[in-house]
Write a structure and sequence with these properties.
Layout lengths: L6 E4 L14 H13 L10 E4 L5
Parallel strand pairs: 1-2
Length: about 55
């Protein structure tokens, strides 16, 4: 079974709002930067990190 090598889960986001609400560039940029920051971390495959974004 394949699992993502790195992933984040934006806690509380509605289904389909993977980067945040439409036209909310600030939150979308925060989500993108959090996802990119995962690339630098050495992790076990399949770990999904819950991340909270109060601005959502």
């Amino acid at each position: 079974m394949m699992r993502p090598p790195r992933a984040i889960h934006p806690v509380g986001f509605e289904f389909g709002h993977s980067l945040g609400k439409p036209h909310d560039k600030t939150t979308q940029m925060k989500v993108l930067m959090a996802a990119l920051a995962e690339l630098n971390e050495r992790q076990e495959p399949g770990n999904i990190h819950d991340v909270h974004f109060p601005s959502y």
